[in-house]
């Protein structure tokens, strides 16, 4: 029996290792139906509107009406601008405390024990009272189809049967939270297109939820979800600081320098390395062998957001064209990595400085 367990554990370890290796080596062919988790908070340009759930909250008005909102206005669903609620409606065949429409409202920063607003003046809160729910909200965003996307948001809950404090437990509702991306841009929370991250209890303290998925259309939709199993007195959920970014490495295809053979010198030029996606990404550069030029970089590796300066010295070089190739990789590998930059130095008899562009003459 013990042996069997060991074999099972080993095979799981091996398949995990294999999966990690595949993910590490084929980032650009990352399959649509797969999902990566475990990166840090998304970074780069945020594709979401009102990511911090600030501004004037207002009642949700369902475009086609809603049975839970008889007058056509959901007055108990006070939403942050740009965010749309979803919830599973109560089934009249169920007891009244099973699956209710939550009440949505802005969390108030006056509550600091524990903290309910992570940044700014508000966070999106919703809750059910002595009942449970399956609910959340979503936002659509325009993206480039095929882009690898990072979606992250901070969330936590207060799930408790008591009023002794504003902390979860000792009897909690087994409240779980998770987030998802519909890479096809749909707005139906039950769609099988949605790629959901793993769910977890995240009580009393903001924790980061983060997933990655590949866009399959020019619009994608990000979702949050929560479900308390038990209808305890307080099942309150809080979300703040959402981020949707593109995971990629981008560098210029080429950099060129022109030098006058009679005016040798050292030329420096920035090498912009655009590396976005999630926290903790870094890059490393190397010079391909076989070039006729040896550029140097102010740094050969660094974190995302920091780019090196390239230096070329034309001292001692006769008239001609000199080339080198830099290879830039990201760690971990992301779409666009490895990338190459073609470096060219042209040493010419005379550099004619026109206004622009720089032209050379023989
Ligand atoms: Ca906020
Ligand atoms: Ca408590």
Structure characterization notes:
- With 362 residues, this protein is mainly β.
- It folds into 2 domains: 27-246, Galactose-binding domain-like (Jelly Rolls, Sandwich), CATH 2.60.120; 250-360, Sandwich (Immunoglobulin-like), CATH 2.60.40.10.
- The protein is built from 1 helix and 25 strands.
- The strands form 7 sheets. The chain has a 5-stranded antiparallel β-sheet, with no helix packed on it.
- It is elongated, with a radius of gyration of 27 Å.
- The protein starts with a helix and ends with a strand.
- Bound molecules: calcium ion (2 copies).
- The site of one calcium ion has 6 residues, from loops.
Rg computed from alpha carbons, rounded to a whole number of angstroms = 27 Å
Heterogens: calcium ion
Helix content: under 10%
Structural class call reads mainly beta
CATH class (first level) name of the largest domain = Mainly Beta
Strand order, sheet with most strands: 4-7-12-9-10
Order of helices and strands: HEEEEEEEEEEEEEEEEEEEEEEEEE
Low-pLDDT sequence parts: 1-34
Label the CATH architecture of the largest domain.
Sandwich
CATH-assigned homologous superfamily of the largest domain: Galactose-binding domain-like
Question: Biggest sheet: strands, sense, closure?
Answer: 5 strands, antiparallel
- What is the CA–CA distance across the termini? 83 Å
Query: What's the helix count?
Result: 1
Overall geometry comes to elongated
As for the number of domains, it is 2
Quick structural overview:
With 362 residues, the protein is mainly beta. It is 7% helix and 41% strand.
């Amino acid at each position: 029996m013990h042996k069997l367990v060991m074999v099972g554990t080993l095979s799981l370890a091996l398949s995990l290792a294999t999966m990690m290796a595949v993910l590490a080596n084929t980032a650009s062919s990352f399959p649509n139906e797969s999902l990566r988790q475990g990166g840090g908070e998304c970074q780069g340009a945020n594709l979401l509107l009102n990511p911090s759930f600030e501004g004037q909250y207002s009642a949700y008005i369902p475009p086609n009406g809603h049975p839970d909102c008889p007058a056509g206005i959901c007055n108990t669903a006070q939403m942050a601008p740009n965010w749309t609620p979803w919830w599973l409606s109560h089934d009249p065949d169920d007891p009244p405390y099973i699956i209710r429409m939550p009440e949505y409202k802005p969390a108030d920063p006056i509550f600091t024990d524990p903290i309910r607003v992570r940044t700014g003046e508000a966070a999106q809160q919703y809750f059910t009272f002595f009942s449970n729910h399956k609910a959340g909200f979503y936002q659509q965003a325009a993206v480039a189809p095929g882009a690898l996307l990072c979606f992250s948001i901070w969330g936590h809950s207060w799930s408790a049967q008591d009023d002794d404090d504003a902390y979860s437990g000792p009897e909690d509702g087994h409240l779980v939270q998770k987030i998802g991306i519909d890479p096809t841009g749909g707005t139906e929370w039950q769609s099988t297109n949605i790629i959901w991250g793993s769910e977890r209890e995240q009580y009393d303290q903001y924790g980061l939820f983060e997933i990655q998925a590949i866009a399959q259309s020019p619009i994608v939709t990000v979702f949050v979800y929560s479900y308390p199993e038990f209808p305890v007195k307080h099942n309150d959920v809080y979300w703040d600081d959402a981020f949707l970014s593109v995971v990629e490495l981008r560098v210029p295809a080429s950099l060129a320098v022109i030098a006058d053979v009679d005016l040798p010198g050292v030329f420096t030029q920035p090498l912009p390395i655009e590396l976005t996606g999630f926290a903790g990404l870094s890059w490393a550069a190397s010079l391909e062998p076989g070039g006729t030029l040896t550029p140097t970089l102010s740094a050969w590796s660094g974190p995302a957001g920091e780019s090196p300066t390239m230096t070329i010295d034309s001292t001692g070089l006769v008239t001609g064209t000199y080339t080198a190739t830099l290879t830039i990789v990201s760690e971990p590998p992301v779409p666009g990595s490895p990338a190459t930059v073609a470096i060219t130095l042209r040493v010419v008899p005379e550099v004619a400085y026109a206004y622009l562009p720089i032209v050379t003459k023989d």
